[in-house]
Design a protein that fits this description.
By secondary structure, this protein is mainly α. The protein has a single domain, classed as Hypothetical protein af1432 (Orthogonal Bundle). The protein is 56% helix and 2% strand. It has 10 helices and 2 strands, in the order αααααααββααα. It has a two-stranded antiparallel ribbon with strand order 1-2.
């Protein structure tokens, strides 16, 4: 845990950005842990925790030195930026994949080409149960300013903007992993549920 915190501090340009990103990662870890307990999901809990705590490390380069959002960089690139950071820090593929394979409910080569996204044209879908859990748990919190928890219904409507196949994928994950109880997390972190 100490190594993970130090890594976040190394890349965060300001204390505010560190708090924004690291708190989100902690929340994703908590959501994933709750889902694992509730469903008795057979997954490597330590790997899920590390993956959740590092999945958004690539968000830091999207901020300038004073904590301002950089307008010249596309947010969707944070996954591959995180992969690059984790590779350079010596993490194995089983860890760096959490960064590049958690966006939405999985980015495909077709998504990238059809939407002209600024990413290498390949698949960035979560493959293992651990990757899927982190990707799914990530959908229930947004590190906007202010930060919000997202209900299952809210995210389902949001996913519809990207096509019915994305809604179906989200529903499939909900069937497999369940829907988290956000009430204790809202109380713990003090972030409201998105209206």
């Amino acid at each position: 845990m100490q190594e993970i915190v130090l890594l976040h501090k190394k890349y965060a340009p300001t204390a505010e950005v560190l708090s924004l990103v690291f708190t989100h990662c902690q929340i994703v870890s908590d959501v994933a842990a709750q889902l694992m307990r509730a469903r008795g999901i057979a997954a490597d809990g330590d790997l899920v925790k590390v993956g959740a705590l590092l999945h958004d490390i690539g968000v830091y380069p999207l901020f300038g030195k004073k904590g301002e959002e950089r307008k010249d960089l596309h947010y969707i690139t944070h996954g591959i930026r995180g992969e690059k950071i984790l590779r350079e820090e010596g993490f194995p593929e089983v860890i760096w994949r959490f960064a590049s394979h958690h966006t939405g409910v999985g980015l495909t080569k077709l998504d990238i080409e059809s939407q002209n996204l600024p990413l290498p044209a390949q698949n960035y879908e979560a493959d293992t149960v651990e990757e899927q859990l982190v990707m799914y748990a990530d959908k229930f919190h947004s590190k906007t300013s202010p930060s919000y928890f997202n209900s299952y219904e809210w995210y389902k409507k949001y996913a519809a903007k990207f096509g019915q196949s994305k809604v179906a994928k989200f529903e499939q994950m909900a069937q497999e992993f369940g829907v988290p109880n956000l009430v204790p997390l809202i109380e713990k972190y003090g972030h409201p549920e998105r209206p």
